[in-house]
Amino acid sequence: MKRVLAAAAALVLLTACGSSDSTDSADSSGTTVRLGFSAWPGWFPWQVAQEQGLFAENGVTVDLTYFDSYTDSLTALSTGNLDANSQTLNDTLSSVSGGAQQTIVLVNDNSTGNDQIIARSGIDTVADLKGRTVAVEQGTVDHYLLLLALRKAGLSEGDITVKPLLTDAAAAAFVAGQVDAVGAFAPFTTTALGLAGSKAVATSADFPGAIPDHLVFDAGFVKDHPKQVQALVDTWFDTLAWIAANKDAAIAIMAKKGGVSDADYKTYDAGTTIFTHEQNLAAFTPGETAANLDFQARSIAKFLVDAKLVDEAPPLDGLFDATFVKAVSP
User: How far is residue 214's CA from residue 91's CA, in Å, rounded to a whole number?
Assistant: First the structure.
């Protein structure tokens, strides 16, 4: 979680960690939105938007960068190498706690099973992880899921040995028999479940609403370039409409980007609930249930502090901006 990496690493992120493509035509202001995303079913629609020219149709120029390492995308936004990124509420709160000024303008999805704690044969419950070694990318949402699952089972992180690895490497280490379990998100869950006898002992479906995923902007960019922000939000919903009308073609695009087969990609459908416009409006509405983002933010912030993943609770004022979702034409 801790968002402070070496300055040298931040300088080379966009060339060393991702691949970038820009839309063909600039908007009238000449402003380009530097948008990052990484391997998650709720974010692959951005690739569809790119390939189908939907950014350009909405009059916005986007420099779309795919990150092989999710944590590198978080760092890129926090250090000013991106204007916007697709990331979880957990990780956004961690960045804000560290001093980053960020604004959430859109809910992409909720994880409803595609984040998993996967264990080898002979380990049937989370309680069975006591004394075992678990590979997980520290500070990411699957680390958070692991802590939630351990707490529910009456354990703590001190009851296991955490092997910190990037998610793709963690899944590979698990398959190679180097660890007893792994915390991973799709599509890396497919890799991990390739180990004979392996099974998910906990998933995000066990913690409804705990892992929402968002389009997050640098707060200053939102203030200075609201038209570009609106165009990106509009593009998202246009993309969902295109996917609904061209499902097989869309799956082919997203599966290719994820490095999995079309058949495997289809299995992720139930585990990632893409939010409609109406669900976005409801999520941004203040409330006291798991469906309300402000409630989730308070709950996650408390957990992050209690688990000593951050030093102090992040400020929530100005974190959620429903302006752009509200302006989308139904």
Answer: 10
User: Which tokens sit at 224?
Assistant: 């200075």
Task: Assess contact for 61 and 126: CB atoms under 8 A.
Answer: no
End-to-end CA separation in angstroms for the chain: 37
Q: Rounded to an integer, what distance in angstroms lies between the CA atom of residue 190 and that of residue 204?
A: 16
Regarding the domain delimited by 115-206, which CATH topology (the fold level of the hierarchy) does it fall under?
Answer: D-Maltodextrin-Binding Protein; domain 2 (3.40.190)
Model pLDDT for residues 287-322, shown as the tens digit of each residue? 998 889 999 999 889 888 887 888 888 999 999 999
CA distance 306 to 156: 12
Average pLDDT of 60-69?
A: 96
Please name which of 148, 194, 139 lies closest in space to residue 167, comparing C-alpha atoms: 139
**pLDDT > 70? residue 7:** no
Cis peptide before 45 (omega within 30 of 0): no
Cβ neighbours of 110 (radius 10 Å): 25
Does residue 275 contact residue 233 with C-beta atoms inside 8 Å? Answer: no
Tokens found for residue 28: 């009238």
Question: Minimal CA–CA distance to 136: which of 208, 188, 63, 201?
Answer: 188
Structure-block tokens of residue 250: 């869309």
Side chain identity, residue 147? L
The C-alpha atoms of residue 326 and residue 328 are separated, in whole angstroms, by 6
d(CA 199, CA 42): 23
Residues of each domain in the chain carrying CATH 3.40.190.10: 7-112+209-326, 115-206
Q: 152-204: per-residue pLDDT in tens?
A: 999 999 999 999 999 999 999 999 999 999 999 999 999 999 999 999 999 99
Which CATH architecture best describes the domain 7-112+209-326?
A: 3-Layer(aba) Sandwich (3.40)
Q: Following DSSP, what letter does each residue of 253-283 receive, concatenated?
A: HHHHHHTS-HHHHHTTTTTEEE--HHHHHHH
In three-state secondary structure terms, 35 is strand
- Asked whether residue 142 carries a pLDDT value surpassing 70, the answer given is yes
